[in-house]
Each structure stands twice: as structure tokens, then as C-alpha cells.
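Hey forum,

I'm writing up a methods section and want to include a predicted complex as supplementary material. The small molecule is magnesium ion. I've pasted the protein sequence and the SMILES. Can someone with a working setup run it? I'll credit the forum in the acknowledgements.
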Amino acid sequence: MENNSDKITLSHIRDLLQTVHQATDKFQLSSLTRQLEAADNLLLQNPPIDVAVLGQFKAGKSSFLNSLLGQNVLPVGAIPVTTAITRLQYGERERAVVQHFNGKKTEIPLADIVKFTSEAGNPSNEKNVAIVDIELPSLQKYPGVRLVDTPGLGSIFKYHEITSESWLPAVGTALLAVSSDRPLSQHDLDLIRELTSHTPNIILLLTKADLLSGEQQQEVIAFFSQTLQRELHRTLPVYLYSTKDKTDEYRNRIEQDIFQTIAANRDYEFLRILRYKTQSLAQSCLGYLRIALQSSLQADLNREGLRTQILNEKVNESLMREELGIIAREHQRQTRPLIAANLEPFLIPLIQKVKSKLEKDIPSWQGNLWKLSRHYESWMSATLSGEMHQLSKAEHTHFLGTLKKAHAGFSRSLEAFRKFLDENIENVLGVRLAQVDWNIDVAEPDHPDISFTKSFDIHLDLIWFLIPMFLFRRIFEHHFIAGVPKEVEINLSRLAYQWEKSVNNAIEAMRLQAITYIQEELATIESLLSRAQGQTDNINQMISQIEKLSDNLSE
Ligand SMILES: Nc1nc2c(ncn2[C@@H]2O[C@H](COP(=O)(O)OP(=O)(O)OP(=O)(O)O)[C@@H](O)[C@H]2O)c(=O)[nH]1
Ligand SMILES: [Mg+2]
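Reply by user p_vandermeer:
Happy to help. C-alpha cells for the complex are below, copy them as they are.
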């Protein structure tokens, strides 16, 4: 195969066969194995073209071959004879090799063939003959061709039929022998149908033509063509043959039209046959894959059905998000009032406490108004942050009320979701899910950062150098003391705000944790339900790959 376009065709064939291999492996299309094997062998071994004579028992197949050879090599007879596939090709010397099913090969004398390939010599193929290969110098006239004799179909020996049919994938050109006294049977039509998937070359051979007059022969040929048209919508070339009458004439025609044509175009013919087989295989494979696709699509539909049954309106992420959001917002709204209510009783006593401490401390402060103000600020800052810390430490557990309620709300909601999901899964799939720990952690918020900031609204201290302290000191002391309630209130309110922020952040963290649980759970269920999926994608991919390669090959 020197030709460049032949090389391209061969590589396309190789690619397509490889893909069909993948498909048959992946989807266990074992019925294509033999066909695939035959195509592989042709590709690998590049053997002579097998021109096989097939047909009903006693159609005269072996006699026809002997007559072509001009030598009675093959056993013939009035009762079913041929038991094993027998191949004949050119060889420098006459020789015959018997191949057994166990792979063993033995060379035998040509005269002993009958002991292996005939029902009389090898009843029921008790010698386990797989194939007999015969080499004859006389076959030099048919270069590139291997003649194949096959056991007849339709006899009482069922295994004859099985032997021939299982060899069919290897056929190159098929000569279907039909005896003149039994023109075309259902068996023949079935065989033609079967051959159609293995070779583009099917030729009818009307044997024992001597049994019919010229007129009758034409009648039979016309009958063939009508029947084939009606049953198979095709025509086939018909050749006459007889070992008794006009043998040379018939033989010459056949040699010229069939064997010389093959010999002259051996490589082209070989490639044409191999391409045909590969395409036919690809079509069979596509047929199976399309069936597989249908059932996979059906399975997807079933899975989709299961999915909607399991993940119904009660087990639904967006609904749960909404519900958890409502729980969070409801409790977050109540955080501030709760904290404020908790702090309220401390307001008056704290004002009293700070006031009397200030009254006690202030007389010892020295300096002008500027200094007095700075002193007041730092005093107030130290005192109130100390008080706020103490209060926070003593009372914070009461601030966490909404956090705990939100936690309870989230837990209940998750539990209900989980229960619906478990029930649905058990109802639909009949399995119980393992219990999952869905505990939401209560992250206690950190103590807020309480720091005192400036307390003066009017910055009197900016004009300190204008104010004679000996006259106004008492007034300023009063001003400072009078400012205490507002400072205390501001600080309590800031404490409440900071705790509110911490608590509400913690509620938000719990909400997010709950959503994560739900998302993870639903993702697990989804993957569980779609685990068997991907088959549809795989099959679709395989189909389009084979279609593409098959298109390449037919270009
Ligand atoms: N009249 C006539 N008889 C023939 C012709 N060719 C073969 N026969 C007879 O048909 C019978 C069957 O011949 P075979 O060659 O053994 O037929 P086969 O198709 O090989 O038979 P199986 O191997 O059993 O399938 C024999 O008795 C032959 O003598 C022919 O051209 N004319
Ligand atoms: Mg025979």
C-alpha cells in the first residue's frame, strides 16, 4: 500500500476501529467482538482476499472449487460433506496444514484432507479442526486471492452452519452457490442479508447449470433478480457454472470477471473491503450505542423524578435560606432592647456612685481651667471604663438572651429540614441516612472594646486664660458634676451598642453555619443521585466520535 490516499484511508480505518473497540469495551457490546477481530486481523495481517464459496449443503461448492483448480483436492459427495473451513492459496509446493481449535498446527499430505474436512473422515468434527490451509502451485493464476470452501447450510448437521456463519466476518468476496435444482431458499436470502454487513462483494453462482435448458436458466436468473428486488431491494450479479457442461466457458467468464479483476486491483479491492467492513461495524456499533443512549436517557429521567421527589418543596435551599434569615433578623432586632432593658436599672445607681466619687475627688485637683478639664476627662475615662468593664463582666450573660434564642430557632429549623429530608430519602430510595451532627456552635462574642472619648460639648477650656479661677472654680466643679448623668448614659448606651453588634454578628455567623450545613447536605444528595449519570454524556460523546470518524472514512 504505497499510495498516499490509501495510507490516509488506512489510518482512518485504524482510528475508527480503535474507537469502536473503546465503545465495545466500555459498553460490553460483545456481539461485535468477532466482527471487530476480523477487521483487526485484516488490518494487521494484510492477507490475500478471501473469495469464499458459501451456500446450502450439496449446492456443489466443493465441486466448483475443484473444477476451478482442475484438480480434485476437496472432498465432494451426494451427502453433506464439507465439515471445516478450507482455504486454498498459491504456494510453491503442494501442502496442507490443519489448524486445530487449540492452536495446534499439523502438516498433512494433500491426499489426507478428506480425513479432516469431510463428514465421513471427521464425523461431527471430532478432530477439532478449526481451519485447513492448502497451498497449491496451480493457484499462481489467481494472485492475491485465497479460495475458501465452507460447510453447507441447512443440512442436518447444525454445526456446519455454525462453522460457516462464525467465519463470515472474515469474508472478502462471497460467491453464493445456489443449485439449479433448488433455486433460492429462505436460507439463501438470510445469508445474503448477513453477508451484507461483511462485504460489498456478493455474487450469485448458479451451479449445476447443466440440469436446466438455456431457457430455464434465463427463467431462473429472472426469478433471482425479482426475488432479490422484492426481498432485499437490490440486485446481484449472477454467474452460471457446471462441472458437466460448458465448464470451460463458465470458468473463463468467472476467471476473467472475478479473479482477474481482483488480482489486477488487489490493494484497491482489499482496502475497499476493509473500509466496508469497518463502516458496517461502526453502523452496528452506533445502533447499539443509540439503544444504550435511550436507556440511559430513561435512567436520567427516572433519576430526575427521584430528585424532585426527594428535594421537594419542604427540602429546598432557598426556602431554608429565607426561614433562617427571618429567624436571624427577628432575634437581631430584639438584641438591643434586651440589652438596654438589662442595663437600665444600673443607670441611676451608677450616676450616684460616679457623682459622689467625683465630689470626693474633685477638690484635690489643681491648676487652671485647662488643667482641670484634662483632669476631668482622664478621671471620667478611667472611672467609666472601669465601671463599664465591671458591668460588662458581671452582666454580659444576660445580654446573650437573643443569641441563645436564635440558636434554638436555627437548631429547630435545621432539625425539621433534616427530618423532612431523611423521610423523603427513606420513602423514595428506601435507605436511611446516617445521623449527622448538626450542632451549631454558639460563639460567645468578645467583650467589646470600651474606651472613653471626649466628654465636653462646649470647649470652655479653650478660653481658660481669660477665666480667673479663684472666682469661678466652684461653678466649673458644678458643671463637671452636673455632666455625670449624661456621661454615664452615653457610656451605657455605647456599651449596649457594642454588645448588640457582637451578639448580632454571632447570630449572623450561626445563620451562615446553618446555611453551610444545608448546602453541603443537598450537594451530597445531588451527587448521590447523579453518580450513575455521565453515562448519557459518555454515550453521546462516543456516538459523535464514531459518526465523525465514519464520515471521515466515507469521504
Ligand atoms: N449435475 C451436476 N451435479 C453436480 C455439479 N456439481 C456438483 N454436483 C453434484 O452435487 C453433489 C454435491 O457436490 P459437492 O461439491 O459436495 O457440494 P457441496 O456444496 O460442497 O456440499 P457440502 O460440502 O456438503 O455442503 C455431488 O454429488 C456432485 O456430484 C454440476 O455441475 N452438475
Ligand atoms: Mg463441500
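Some notes you might quote in the supplement: Residues 311-541 form one domain. Residues 484-530 form the longest helix (47 residues).
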